[in-house]
Amino acid sequence: MRLNDKVAVITGGATGIGRAIAEAYLKEGAKVVIADLRGAQEAAAELGERALGVTTDVSDQQSTRAMASAVLEHFGRIDILVNNAGIFTGLNYTPMEELAVSDWQKLMAVNVLGPWLCASAVTPAMREQGGGRIINIASVIAHLGIPFMLHYVASKGAVSAMTRSMARELAATKSGITVNAISPGYIHSPNAVANKAQHEQFEAVSAQMRTIERAQKPEDIAGAALWLASDESSTVNGQNIVVDGGIFMSL
Ligand SMILES: NC(=O)c1ccc[n+]([C@@H]2O[C@H](COP(=O)([O-])OP(=O)(O)OC[C@H]3O[C@@H](n4cnc5c(N)ncnc54)[C@H](O)[C@@H]3O)[C@@H](O)[C@H]2O)c1
Questions:
Q1: Is the pTM of this model over 0.85?
Q2: Number of folded domains that form the chain
């Protein structure tokens, strides 16, 4: 058991990539918290007695602080935070001149403010325990600069930059907390598939670029998230692991 008795908070864990990560962590002995705006309790009930559902809005400071308190009250500690909640699957390609300021602000509040608020809510407990793991779900889209999704690309670029800065700051303050990111390629999560017209376009573009010729499922991200939460990655910090079927290749 690679995560025996570890307590892991997974934001947006009710469905999709977050749900697959929660299931992988449970199999390795963790206790998991589904911190989601929708369906948190239902998902936790389906996942069994080692799962707790806490309705959380990651873009709201009070809500993220209340979530951390509820986890500490229920499980007594927080070892892992997966910042997975994000606005993506409902988006459609939109020319940058036509993006609404209100949509840009809402997306930034969830995708950028959210990971910072959640991290800040759990780091006091992690510091007291002598360490922890923070895993931010970014996107390969920020490496590639895909067009017609400027606000989303900008938000995931910010997550990637914030990962490095958080890793250094938490190391400089001797917290024992590591911070890494995962950048998925296009993933057939249920909500992505449900957005049919956009889904087909995303998959067509991805299929042209992939070196591993199969579509990706939420479970494909769970392996990297498990490794980053486990003792096997204890000297990995500030990294951004691309899991995209071999599209983006860095130096
Ligand atoms: N699906 C992909 O192709 C893909 C690719 C790269 C990165 N990602 C990223 O992975 C993450 C998960 O993607 P997914 O495909 O599983 O998405 P999804 O839409 O299926 O799930 C997102 C979850 O986040 C929750 N959520 C949304 N706003 C929230 C808020 N304010 N507070 C708390 N929870 C909130 C939703 O309720 C949902 O359960 C996102 O950050 C997304 O940007 C997805």
A1: yes
A2: 1
